[in-house]
Amino acid sequence: MTDQELRVSKIQRGTVIDHIPGGQALNVLAILGIDGTEGDVVSIGMNVPSDRLGRKDVVKVEGRELSQSELDVLSLIAPDASINIIREFEVRQKHRVDRPERVTGVLECPNHNCITSESEPVETEFEVLDGGIRCVYCDTIIRENIASHIYV
Ligand code: CTP
Ligand code: ZN
Known about the structure:
This protein has about 150 residues and is mainly beta. The protein has 2 domains: about 15-95, 2-Layer Sandwich (Alpha-Beta Plaits); about 100-150, Aspartate carbamoyltransferase regulatory subunit, C-terminal domain (SH3 type barrels, Roll), CATH 2.30.30.20. It has helices at about 25-30, 70-75, and strands spanning about 15-20, 40-50, 55-60, 80-85, 90-95, 100-105, 125-130, 130-135, 140. Strand 2 and strand 3 form a beta hairpin. The chain starts with 13 loop residues before the first strand and ends in a 10-residue tail after the last strand. The structure holds cytidine-5'-triphosphate (CTP) and zinc ion (ZN).
């Protein structure tokens, strides 16, 4: 690791999400449900130079590990992300995100007539396709800017 990459300091314990496409860090935080009000300790690097991606974002969340459903949705906006579990300042586990077959919750269907948009909503569920996702209830397909459909 070069000094260049040490722009954001190392953490003692938590999760480093690395190799996020440049500009997507805030969307990653939205997927994790982190808006800063709960007191999570978070460091963000945006548009950091990267050999592999040209520029990348990095998100470091202290004291927390991620659930599989968070990782599944993350893979849709950051397919090349690496997830590093840090304990005692060391990288203890490093894994890539996998593209899931389906994602439930987290993303909202844009069709206002969809059963998932009603007043007692059914949890959303999307089938993951090449280049998009499809609502399993109403067949609406989202191809672009998936991050804009994250529930806020
Ligand atoms: N990291 C951190 N705190 C630590 C250890 C590592 O914030 N105590 C961060 C590093 O800054 C890096 C990521 O976790 O962004 C992965 O660390 P490491 O595996 O040491 O870096 P690389 O070898 O560059 O990772 P890769 O091969 O995945 O590019
Ligand atoms: Zn729908």
